[in-house]
Design a protein that fits this description.
Strand order of the largest sheet: 1-8-5-2-3
Strand content: 35-45%
Structural class: mainly beta
Radius of gyration: 15 Å
Number of strands: 10
Shape: globular
Oligomer: single chain
Number of domains: 1
Helix content: under 10%
């Protein structure tokens, strides 16, 4: 299960934090809970950074997805029925999206960007994918 807790640059609270120079406090202001691990990931130039993530089963996590490409949309797709993972989140150019999840099933999973232009290779075909390891 996951919950999209998207914050866009047009959100009044985000604009206030940016204007006051308090953006460094943003992960604490928007955290899912005191025990949630926050993982910041950038999406851009046909890659995820980091592209290898290790999480502990049963621990709440907030994925903070920042699209550093100003125009090109990206997404994070992570679907594995046996692992209980069904995430497909779009991140417009220049935006940041927060996704809350709690992985429950240990294993190795692949995430990727499924965006593509007509008659072109997909972002995944350009190498935009990564790996999630969930440990017991």
């Amino acid at each position: 299960m996951y919950r999209d807790t998207t914050r866009r640059a047009s959100d009044p609270m985000l604009a206030l934090l940016l204007g006051c120079g308090l953006i460094g406090w943003l992960p604490f202001a928007m955290a899912a809970g005191d025990d949630a691990q926050v993982v910041h990931m950038t999406l851009g130039d046909y890659q995820f950074k980091p592209n290898e993530i290790t999480l502990k089963a049963g621990q709440p996590v907030v994925l903070e997805l920042q699209n550093v490409d100003r125009i090109t949309p990206h997404n994070l797709t992570l679907k594995d029925e046996k692992g209980g993972l069904d995430i497909d989140v779009d991140v417009s150019g220049g935006d940041t999206v927060r996704v809350e999840l709690t992985p429950e099933v240990p294993g190795n999973y692949t995430f990727y960007c499924n965006k593509k232009l007509l008659f072109m290779k997909s972002h995944r075909d350009h190498g935009m994918e990564g790996h999630l390891t969930v440990t017991p």
